[in-house]
Amino acid sequence: MTETSTVTLTHTAALARLGFALSDETRTRILLALREAPAYPSDLADALGVSRQTMSNHLACLRGCGLVESVPDGRRTWYRLADPHLAPALGGLLRLVVTVDPGCCGPDCRCS
Question: What superkingdom heads the lineage (predicted)?
Answer without folding.
Answer: Bacteria
